[in-house]
Amino acid sequence: MDTIILIAFCFGYALIALENKVKINKAAIALLTGGFIWTAYILFNSNSESIVQQLVEHIGNISQIIFYLIGAMTIVELIDSYNGFDVITKQIKTSNERQLLLTLSVLTFFLSSVLDNLTTTIVMVTLIRRLLSDQKDRLLFVVMIIVAANSGGAWTPIGDVTTTMLWIGGQITTVNIMRELFVPSLVSMLVPLLLISLMVKGQFKRMDNTNQQSSILNFEKRIVFFTGIAALIFVPVFKFITNLPPFMGMLTGLSVLWIVTELLNKDRSYEHKITVTNALRKIDIPSVLFFLGILLAVAALESTGLLSNLAAALSKSIGNLKTIAISIGMLSSLIDNVPLVAASMGMYDLHSFPTDHYFWKLIAYCAGTGGSILVIGSAAGVAAMGIEKIDFFWYLKKISWIALIGYLSGAFLYIFML
Q1: Ramachandran quadrant class, 202 (left: phi over 0; alpha: psi -120 to 50; beta: rest)
Q2: Cβ distance 68 to 331 under 8 Å?
Q3: Cys-Cys crosslink for 112: which of 12, 25, 152, 374, Cβ 3.0 to 4.6 Å?
Q4: pLDDT digit string (tens) for 144-191?
């Protein structure tokens, strides 16, 4: 059974990577892979009730991510529909590509430490689409956004889901993780920024958005923009206060923005209304389904015990804690970092490795930033891949080695600082 599941996962992964060659949408492949693996898992086991229960539990966790993603995409789409990002783009005066790359990277890095890296990526990719019309010109900017979002999410308890897991589990504390991981995380962003900035040069022509949605007043743009951003920032605050899952905060923020836009549109004719209903029609549902398929497939690997076996094999064969953490980070570019970190938390208890032990902080850094090595290795990468149709092999050839250098630079710096 394990062999069949592994072959199916690898075959599905290969087809996703070869999307441009096979001409089949990666969302369809991801859904088929997830469905096939769970089907094989239940057919080769006699205790079907237990497997169904496992699936139901995973669906509960996965649905939280899906609802969160739909809420975030809807808020960002609504801001964009109101040309709300003009509030930021008008402040960006430069027409130099390197200066723009630096500005967006730094902004992404710090924004993702407050928001999560997934939401930050959606916001920043939408922003760059408002500045650059040509998709080829945007690619290097988008991949740098992926790297910066993952790096920025690693040094705060609320910036990345794996860091949040370690924080809630008692493995790390807020002040220590921020103090000790800020510099390594910054280096993991700055090194790729330096290398990618060498690939861009010259000036860019800004998109002319002056004729779009001319019926929208400036005060409406500002209201929707600031309400939308406040709704996104409200999510981690909501979670901290209530301890409810983040998707509840996201949907609550969306509902507030929904009410605001309904009030703004009350005097408009039907054909000129810009509401959440319009935004929901525009969000990229195939990307959402791609997420669903990938998460279902990885959940099956977790339920079968394959991921925990992998973590145990790493521990047994490698032994060295620093090497194990770095290996987990590199594996997170292939496999979702959440089950990998969960397996690590189960294998290494707090008695042997107490709160704020360097191993937990290194795990937080590696799991958070290692996903940048492959475009499919992080939620930020998957979201950007869906929005911008990034080719897997283009990323592998042009960007992976750069992200790997940045990842290792930050990891070795942290080890050196111990």
Answers
A1: left
A2: no
A3: 152
A4: 999 999 999 899 887 787 887 788 677 888 888 999 999 999 999 999
